[in-house]
Amino acid sequence: MTTVHSAHSIQVHNPADGTVVGAVPDQDRDAVAAAAAALRAAQPTWEEIGPAGRRKWLLSWQDWLIDNSARLSEIVRSETGKPRATADIEVPAAVDLMKYWANNAARFLADDHPKPHNLLGRTKQLTTCYRPYPVVGVITPWNFPLLNVFFDALPALMAGAAVLVKPSEVTPLSAVEIGRGWTEIGAPPVFSVVTGSGNTGHAVVEAVDYLQFTGSTRTGRKIAAACGDRLIPCSLELGGKDPAIVLADADLDRAANGIAYGSMFNAGQVCISIERVYVEEPVYDEFVAKLTERVAALRQGDDARPYSADVGALATPAQRDIVQRHVDEALAAGARTTVGGKSTGTGTFFEPTVLVDVDHSMSCVTEETFGPTVPVMKVADEDEAVRLANDSIYGLSATVWTGDKQRGEKVARRLEAGAVNVNDSFANMFSFALPMGGWKQSGIGARWGGAAGIRKYCRQQAITVPRLPMQKSEVTWFPASKIKTRALITLLQGMAARGKRRLPGPRS
Ligand code: NAD
After folding, report:
1. What is the annotated signal peptide range for this record (predicted)?
2. Is the pLDDT of residue 4 over 80?
3. How many Cα atoms are found within 13 Å in the side-chain-facing hemisphere of 384?
4. Contact of 268 with 369, CB cutoff 8 Å
5. How many angstroms separate the Cα of 194 from the Cα of each of 35, 108, 188, 211, 232?
6. Residue-wise pLDDT tens digits, 265-296
7. CB neighbours of residue 440 within 10 Å
């Protein structure tokens, strides 16, 4: 199950049973630079064909994805140990995202013609246009090996950039297949996948013009520093410790079902997993009983009989060890489990676990766990819940559970998080019209969210074109003169200042 690096290749394992399921090259700096150079050479033509030309390729890729969905889903499963029901979602979610960008990119990338801000500006036609960064690097983690690539590669490609992907060394096989698909449909060579570990990722940062990163806050910090050195922009989608607030007026059955799903889906390996729950005192006992019942009912296993498992393996032994450490440290400090608490089976499985009697001194509440555990805390009221929810270095997303939707929205606006779902888990993630991004140490920038989600891969270019017939010279040009300078001051001050300060003349 450990990722094995030989001199030139990396073995990929199925964490559910430890079998080797593939191998990819561990590509070095030269290989990455060569891939980036080839992309750079092909990109201008890709930009030239415009959004309508690129749309055709995107939809052709979408067809390929659907036609190969069963095989791709198996590859996702083989390198992650996910149950089928979880792996099967990746292709359709990517298909949906493809439609979003295919249908909206042209509109989002259209030139803007802003109104001039003053009278002088009216002598020009003003245009802002959106020109892509030539080569965009996309570095991804292992939790959704197929979707994570599409999340960011699609808008970058539709913006007219060429895209260089470096998937996680733990789960590179899905990304390699996606690259194969792009070639198979005969698309222009503006999408490439390089494989390897952190060094390969660093080489990508050195070779591209914009870097989109999804992964841990620890690596994100290194990438931001490397991008800073090169003075290239980056956007970072990092870790989280998402709180859920259960108010006393909530429908407790829905809250328990939603929080069981939001904390255990993909074995808790979702950046926006619910990782801590604050429950108002009057309903605490009842909620804990209901959540425990839901979590205890989850079926865990390798899904040998299709769709017989809800919760699969963790992606690596290291990930399982983090989960075990968080649980052990909590128990040693006085917490209790109401269900679960240990690893099971031969693979990297960890029992779906509910922790109670926890507090903010424990690692299970302060650090990102990224596993199937959910600590629950009792709070006196809404104010305490909001204060504790905001007491985190992270600010990715949050949920609020209440019978009063208006109250839910009011609480949402008090939370320091990039997204808040009222009475639901993950809803923001599948609303591509909304931005998805983290506050605080959960990230910089955001993906999706209408025009901003594609324009982020573009450099803005300002163009002015005269509206009036051309003269040989302009009054503001050389030679300088007192009269011309005074006229300019009078004009600018007259247009911009207030009251009598609009009038020219000396002032002490
Ligand atoms: P990670 O940071 O260990 O690795 C992510 C990627 O970065 C991998 O491809 C890795 O090879 C590469 N990398 C490592 N060192 C590098 C370096 N110095 N330069 C360039 N690239 C480097 O993260 P992970 O363990 O694969 O994924 C889990 C993390 O991802 C969790 O923290 C999770 O919250 C986060 N995540 C965030 C989002 C989001 O949208 N905010 C989504 C999914 C996962």
Report:
1. none
2. no
3. 14
4. yes
5. 8, 29, 17, 14, 20
6. 999 999 999 999 999 999 999 999 999 999 99
7. 17
Calpha distance 352→298 (Å, rounded)? 8
Instruction: Look at the chain and count its residues.
Output: 508
In this structure, what token pair is assigned to residue 226?
Answer: 């490397």
**pLDDT, tens digit (0-9, with 9 covering 90-100), for 33-63:** 999 999 999 999 999 999 999 999 999 999 9
Cα separations in angstroms, 92 against 68, 147, 157, 380, 430: 11, 9, 19, 42, 11
Q: Which of 284, 265, 290, 262 is nearest to 274 (CA)?
A: 262
Given a cut of 90, whether residue 193 has pLDDT beyond it is yes
Q: Of the listed 237, 275, 280, 367, which one is catalytic?
A: 237
Using CA atoms, how far apart are residues 447 and 482, in angstroms rounded to an integer?
Answer: 52
Better pLDDT: 120 or 15? 15
Residue 199, ligand 1, Cβ within 6 A: no
Q: Which atom of ligand 1 is nearest to the CA of 217?
A: 32
CA distance 286 to 282: 9
Contacts of 339 (CB under 8 A, 6+ apart): 292, 295, 296, 351, 352, 353, 354
From ligand 1's centre to the CA of 32, what distance in Å? 19
pLDDT bin (cut points 50, 70, 90) of residue 302 is: confident
How far is Cα of residue 255 from the mean position of the Cα atoms in its chain?
Answer: 25
The pLDDT value given to residue 2:
43
Backbone angles phi, psi at 36, to 5 degrees: -65, -40
For residue 446 and ligand 1, the question of a CB distance below 6 A is answered with no
Q: What is the pTM of this model?
A: 0.96
The minimum-distance atom of ligand 1 relative to the CA of 169 is 11
Residues contacting 483, CB < 8 A, separation 6+: none
Residue 434 Cα to ligand 1 middle (Å): 23
CA separation for the pair 185, 182 (Å, rounded): 6
CA distances 290 to 252, 258, 265, 295, Å, are: 8, 11, 18, 9
* 240 Cα nearest atom in ligand 1: 34
Site of tokens 């390089």: 194
